[in-house]
Amino acid sequence: MKQFVLLFAATAAALVTPSVVRKQQTPLATNQDKTAEQNAVQAWWDALPNAGNLMSPIEDRITKSIQHSSLDSFLSLIDSEEQEEDHPHPRPWPPHGGHGRHGHRGDPDKTIYELIKENKHTTKFAELVDKYDEIKQLLEDTKHNHTLFVPTDRAFEHVPHHGHGHCGGDDDDDKNNNNDGDHKKPCKEFILALLKYHITPGLYPLHRIHTSHTLPTELHPPALDTSTSSSSNNHPQRIRTSTTPLIPLTHLNFHARLITGDFAAKNGLIHALDAILLPPPSQTTIIRLLPAPFSTLALALQTTGLDKELSTGGEGALPRSGGGTFFAPTNRAWERLGPRVNAFLFSERGRPFLRALVRYHVVVNETVYSDGYYRGGGGGDGKGEGEGEGEGEGEGVGGGYWHVDLPSLLHGKPVSVDIKTWKGFVSIVVNGFVQVVVRDGVADDGVLQVVGRVLIPPHRHHDGHGGEEAENMSVEELKDRLEPYLEEAEESGGRENMGDL
């Protein structure tokens, strides 16, 4: 079961809490090297044997997340400032590291690399680091602080077997043809991306992680890059964090448990994990590999050809930078439309309407996490990329609210997003009433925000957004709502005078 959970970890999600933007550091690799790394990541996922069977147990986890989302939503709507003034509460979890900024564990005279090298529980991760000079140099760098999430040796026992030893190319390590299994090892580019995904720029002690939703990493996927020529503006891939209320039980990407932490080093902090963090695949791959919640959406993408347009490469793919936000309706959300509407949408006659409907759920070049925002072309506020100890709006014991209008792929028709946070809880509401039931599913090319209802675009010449009457909408009403969007040539969508965060 753990190997199933391990696979889900990378697909499920990532969040960040707004914080001080860190100073730009020298990039770890050239753009060409990063492209090779990310091609390796997607190729690794594409080559997984029996991926559908491996992902099938994930249904229970998603169902539980949906059931618990109402609690998150309720608590996150509490006016945090009034609550803090009227009813101050002590911190519900003690810091694991004792007293002081970083606790008393670790050795502030040694680097992160030296500490994991000498520790008997992190030998396997240290062996991987030794094979990549740029990672070793990063963990020995004393000019910048970093936080390392290091899997213990036991975590490596749950790595799923992979049927291919290459990442989209011929990278067979079994050069001696001795069938010793080396050819089944992941390629070097994939391992390099994996190592970077365990490193966070800046200091993230446990108390900060407990109140965060996502964390930036040293992995910079090309699909999240800006369209500028400067590689220093690349957006980092994120890790989703989730802490159980009242007890210090923290999971990363749903599956990896933070078992201990706040080990101080000369150049940062170390936390230990019971599982490996896998770099996530693309949005469409996640949808395809999770049929329990997304089989209807996957069919819609395939039927309309949008799966190819939204892919991160290949013929027919949309030009993208800065990632994208996909408001992914669950199977239950499609069922709410009723059997007649679904029958029409998935008929040959209804295919153009289905295409328009799905395009309204897609935003390209703008990635909105519950506490972070990336925009192509060098924009975006970079929330959550802080290196300092300061806390931004919406982070820590207080709460925060922010709003953004995102241009959808349906002629740029805006999708409104309202986000409110309180004490680690978060509520994301789309178009005024549609709740995000599973937040921040991190992907190679952006984020999945799972919604419990299908989004219906407004009347073409009316202001506002689609209303709750969508669930009771007849086929004719749906056609009347969508038909105006079929009359013009489809555009990729874009931002023109949209609201900022």
From TrEMBL:
<feature type="region of interest" description="Disordered">
    <location>
        <begin position="217"/>
        <end position="239"/>
    </location>
</feature>
<feature type="region of interest" description="Disordered">
    <location>
        <begin position="375"/>
        <end position="397"/>
    </location>
</feature>
<feature type="region of interest" description="Disordered">
    <location>
        <begin position="459"/>
        <end position="501"/>
    </location>
</feature>
<feature type="compositionally biased region" description="Basic and acidic residues">
    <location>
        <begin position="492"/>
        <end position="501"/>
    </location>
</feature>
<keyword id="KW-0732">Signal</keyword>
<feature type="domain" description="FAS1">
    <location>
        <begin position="281"/>
        <end position="455"/>
    </location>
</feature>
<feature type="region of interest" description="Disordered">
    <location>
        <begin position="80"/>
        <end position="109"/>
    </location>
</feature>
<dbReference type="InterPro" id="IPR000782">
    <property type="entry name" value="FAS1_domain"/>
</dbReference>
<feature type="signal peptide">
    <location>
        <begin position="1"/>
        <end position="18"/>
    </location>
</feature>
<dbReference type="Pfam" id="PF02469">
    <property type="entry name" value="Fasciclin"/>
</dbReference>
<feature type="domain" description="FAS1">
    <location>
        <begin position="109"/>
        <end position="277"/>
    </location>
</feature>
<feature type="compositionally biased region" description="Polar residues">
    <location>
        <begin position="225"/>
        <end position="239"/>
    </location>
</feature>
<dbReference type="InterPro" id="IPR050904">
    <property type="entry name" value="Adhesion/Biosynth-related"/>
</dbReference>
<dbReference type="InterPro" id="IPR036378">
    <property type="entry name" value="FAS1_dom_sf"/>
</dbReference>
<protein>
    <submittedName>
        <fullName>Fasciclin domain protein</fullName>
    </submittedName>
</protein>
<feature type="region of interest" description="Disordered">
    <location>
        <begin position="160"/>
        <end position="181"/>
    </location>
</feature>
